[in-house]
Amino acid sequence: MRIARFSIDGNVAFGAVEGEGTVESGGLVLDIIKGIPYTDFELSGTKVPLSKVRLLPPVLPNKVVAIGRNYAEHAAELGNEVPDVPVAFFKPTTSVIGPGDAIEYPSFSNELHHEAELAVVIGRMCREVPRERVKDVVFGYTCANDVTARDAQQREKQWARAKGFDTSCPLGPWVETDLSIAAASDLTIQATVNGEQRQLGRTSDMIRSIEDLVVHITEAMTLLPGDVILTGTPAGVGPLNVGDEVAVTIEGIGTLTNKVIKRG
C-alpha cells in the first residue's frame, strides 16, 4: 500500500494512494485514512483525486538518522575510504520538505549536491532491535534526497550545517508499505537533474544492509513511529543550481521531484 500525507482545504490527513500513474500524470486518487497509519487503521471510503490536494512530506519524523559512505563507489568518487563502522549523522526535522517543495540554496554555500537515497520509515517505537526483528519495526520505504552543501562539508569537521540546513531533506512522494526488506534491498535508484540522468545504482550495492543499519542505530537510541533512516547514496552525486529540477526515482516506490530556488 502507498500511504501519502496531504492537505486539502486547510486540513491534513493520511490517505491510501490508489490507481495507476504518477503524481504528475494524474489518474491517482486518495482514500482517506481514519486516524494515523502506524497502527491498525480503516479506510474511510471517502476518495479525493490526488490532483486536488497538496502532497506533504509522507511522515513528520522526530529524527532523521542518515548514513554516510554506504556505497563504495560514492565514497571513492569523493576521495574517501569506506569506514570500518557506519557513519551516522542527523538531519533535523526543519530540513524535511515534501514532493514539489522548493530546495532553498543556502547562502553559506557555493556547491550544492544532490544525493538520491532509499529512506526507511520506522513504524513502531523500538530500541536494541535484533536482526530477526527488524522486519517488524519497518513501516515502509520512501524516496529521499540528502541535499548537501559539499563545500561546507569539506571545510567543517561536523556535517550539521552542510547536511542539516532548512529544506535539505526532501522526502516522498509517499511511503510504500508492501515491500519486504529483501525486495527493498535490490531496487534501482536514480537521480536526474533537468531530465538528465546523474545517478544510477542499486540498493544491493549498499555496504551495510537495512538490517545492519537498524541494528546499529537502535543500539544507541530509541526510534519512534515516523522516524526515518537514510541509507546512503550511490555514485554520481553532482551540482545543483538555482532553477534546476531534481528528481529521485526508486523502483517500486515512485519519484520525488523538487526545484532549487534562491533562498530569500
From TrEMBL:
Record-level GO BP terms: carboxylic acid metabolic process
Domain Fumarylacetoacetase-like C-terminal: 63-260
UniProt EC number: 5.3.3.10
Keywords, ordered alphabetically: Isomerase, Metal-binding
Domain (Rv2993c-like N-terminal): residue spans on this chain: 1-58
GO molecular function: 5-carboxymethyl-2-hydroxymuconate delta-isomerase activity; acetylpyruvate hydrolase activity; metal ion binding
InterPro entries noted in UniProt: Fumarylacetoacetase-like_C (IPR011234), Fumarylacetoacetase_C_sf (IPR036663), Rv2993c-like_N (IPR018833)
UniProt keyword annotation of Isomerase present: yes
Protein name: 5-carboxymethyl-2-hydroxymuconate delta-isomerase
Organism, as annotated: Streptomyces venezuelae (strain ATCC 10712 / CBS 650.69 / DSM 40230 / JCM 4526 / NBRC 13096 / PD 04745)
